[in-house]
Amino acid sequence: MHPSITTLLNGPKVIPVLVIEDPEDALPLARSLVDNGLSILEITLRSDAALNAIETIANQVEGAVVGVGSILTEAQLNAAQSAGGQFGVSPGVSFKLLQALEMSDWPFLPGAGSLSEMLTLRDAGFSQQKLFPAAVLGGISMLKAVAGPVGDISFCPTGGINPDNARDYLSQSNVFAIGGTWIAPLDLVRAKDWDEIGRRAAEAAMLGS
């Protein structure tokens, strides 16, 4: 079995999914989240500043558990670990990435969007998977449908999660956490509205506690 992602999770089961474009935003953003109860962060590799931000937060924000999202290749996998990421996340898994993951003991949350992908990942030792894009795939209906045939797999749904449906997702027996961009959306990060992000983080922390 691959190292369990849930060993890194404690307290709230809500993971903010972040895009950081300006390296100077890394510290205030991470601190606003951690100080308001969300210590597990997923920083996506969707900007040139991402790896710098990951390194900064990993080294300077006490209590932050830094995950690296949007990993698509072995090179990105290695770069994420070198930057100080404590776990990785992918939207899906290619054959080459899966080969690299099978050689690694780094905690990783691979994305699945179909039963065939779920079974492939389970065979590779991943009993915890990211369901993405959750809402497009059917959301809670999808989770209920797969709970029977792959009842030994638990999920972190991401994609279309918001304050209105977050609690419903978390109530599913095969959901161990949820991920979402609503807590620190790019427009609020660009506006450097750390107070509003902190408020949203505190509300989200209550959802999963």
From TrEMBL:
Pathway field: Carbohydrate acid metabolism; 2-dehydro-3-deoxy-D-gluconate degradation; D-glyceraldehyde 3-phosphate and pyruvate from 2-dehydro-3-deoxy-D-gluconate: step 2/2
EC number of the protein: 4.1.2.14
Uppermost EC category: lyase
Keywords assigned by UniProt, alphabetized: Carbohydrate metabolism, Lyase
Reaction catalyzed: 2-dehydro-3-deoxy-6-phospho-D-gluconate = D-glyceraldehyde 3-phosphate + pyruvate
Keyword Lyase: yes
Keyword match Lyase: yes
Description of how the protein assembles with itself and partners: Homotrimer.
Protein name: 2-dehydro-3-deoxy-phosphogluconate aldolase
Organism: Cohaesibacter celericrescens
